Amino acid sequence: MNIDNQIVDAEGRKRFIEMLQKQLIRENPSALPIYGVDGQFGSETRNWVNRFQERKGLKVDGIAGPETLGRLREDIVQRPDTSGRGVEILQEDLLWFFIQQSAIDGQYGPGTTQGVRDFQFLNNLVVDGVAGPNTLKKMDELITSILTQKGDSGSLVLRIQNQLNDQGEADISIEVDGEFGPETEEAVRVFQDATEQRVDGIAGPVTMNLLDLEALHPTSPETIQQFLLDNGIRISTASQNQDITQKLTDLLALDSAFKNNVPSGADNELSSVAVSLMTIEAVDEDKEVQLYHLTASLDEKNQYINVQAVFNLDEKLEQFAFIVIEGDLYESNARLMYYDEEGNLIDQLSDTLLELTNADLDVQKDITGVISGIQAQSAMHTFCDWTATLLPGTVCGLALAAFGTGIGAVVGSVVCGKIGGDIMYDEWECDQYIED
Length: 436
Prior knowledge:
The chain is built from 17 helices and 7 strands. It is α+β, with helices and mostly antiparallel strands. A 7-stranded antiparallel β-sheet has the order 1-2-3-4-5-6-7, sandwiched between helices.
């Protein structure tokens, strides 16, 4: 994929929004003075895209398409003996690759020049110490990559090798040469086994995330639950007995809205059914929300179909979702479809397992960042505080992530936030609370 041959807007993937924001600052150090590189395509980013487009005689629409991204790429050349925010971003990127030739001071001096030369050499580029379009594009390609495997080489592999040697989960010591050979593949397998991942020797988004030593580990459900309890919110899940499980299974199987939307070719019989009662309560308030969450499977040849449904305490179906996964490889396609109780499509997503897994990890990283920010500022007090700070559905996602869905990170927080979070938000009357 040519990273400049795409559309980056409010619906874009976070890592590509960050790439765009870096480019805007590289091109104009005065750009994005408030939020900087935050991965959010808000009004500030849109305004600065507009400014660039207007200045360069491009179509002014605030959307960074191939023409805008290509022009940004062409126009940016960072040279020795310059300074500013763009140079600081360059230095941060070099450090991300474990190229530690200079301090992050915004000064393109001899150390930064040598760091650029090292990067160029490792990635088979012209070695001149100038961060021009080809060098910066290669940096952006590697930084936005979320998978590397045997046969790959260069700065991203070198970063992973350094991280494998530095981590404390497994006893690993390998040569750092930038070549993803058998030794690195085996080291990845050892790390994956030690951290209870799928063991395949491929450094995908989960492995790469867990290797990050700079506080990018997703906050565990247990840690989040304790944090919420410390701030007056108790989350609990309780597996339900066979009677309730069978009753809700029968109700779902007979529901016309559900039956009318079962993916084509799938069996109508639900299997591997599990039901949990999820409770969110305010410790110091007389408020509580409870929902039944059902997860199950529908078999289909060459596909895996996961079903999730939410019932209220009166055993009335509120929402349901299908997750159709066409294989177990990172490149396999996955479709997520969410419906209300009447069978109306609420939303749908379609992407590869690789991208959906990475999106889920981004959600978890955002949660970690919010928790850290709250801890540094002031305590939360209510469920509505929490959902207002993040997004309706996040707490639901956390609770069900702890319960487990059977297909891991792909459908953890993301699915639950769709099929249960908005219900909780509404039942707690958060809109009224926040307005008051």
